[in-house]
Amino acid sequence: MKIGLLVGSLRKNSWNKKLAKEVAELLDVETYKIDLSETPFYNQDLDMGEIHPAYTKLREDVKKCDAFIFITPEYNRSLAPVLKNAIDIASRGPEGNLWAGKPATVFSSTIGTMGGVSSNLALKQSFTCVDLIAMSKPEVYLAKINELFDKDGKLIEETRPFVKSACDAFVDFAKKFID
C-alpha cells in the first residue's frame, strides 16, 4: 500500500508540512508526498490539446497512490485552496476521475483552538463529489499546532500517540478498499 500525502500549506516552514513529515514517519506503510507547490489553479484551457505539465505530474502522482491523507490548515473557516485545486485537477482530464473509489482522510490543524474543524469538513464535502471514500473516525483536529512540536521538530509525547493511532486506523480503513 502506498499512501499519498497532500499538504494544504505552501509556506516553507508550515506546521502542516511538519505534521506531514511526522505522519510519514508514523505510518507503517510506504508514503508518497504529492507536491502541490508548482501546480497552477485549474483552468480548462490548460487542459486541452497540450496539457499543462503540472496537471500531468499531479495526475501521475495520484495514480501512484492507493489512498490519501490530506493535511490541511484552515483559511477563513474553509479548506486550503491548493487542496481543492488538486481535487479538481485529478478529477478531470483524459483518464477521468482518478480519485474514484480510493480511501482518504483529513488531518487538520490550526494555531487556534478549533483545530481546523471547518477545513476538515469542507474537504470531506469535496470528497463526496469525486468519490473519495472518507474515513469518518477518528477525526483529527489538532488545535494549537504551534505548541505540539518540540525543539527538534518532532511531535510532543502527549500528541504523538494520538496521531500514531489515527495513522494506524487509516491504514486499517484503507486496506478494506484496496485489492
Automatic annotation (TrEMBL):
Domain spans labelled NADPH-dependent FMN reductase-like: 1-145
Alphabetized InterPro entries for the sequence: Flavoprotein-like_sf, FMN_Rdtase-like_dom, NAD(P)H-dep_reductase
Enzyme class label: oxidoreductase
Keywords linked to the UniProt accession: Oxidoreductase
Keyword Oxidoreductase: yes
Classification via SUPFAM superfamilies: Flavoproteins
EC number: 1.-.-.-
GO molecular function annotations of the record: oxidoreductase activity
PANTHER family named in the record: CHROMATE REDUCTASE, NAD(P)H-DEPENDENT FMN REDUCTASE LOT6
Name the UniProt record assigns to this protein: NADPH-dependent FMN reductase
Organism: Anaerococcus kampingae
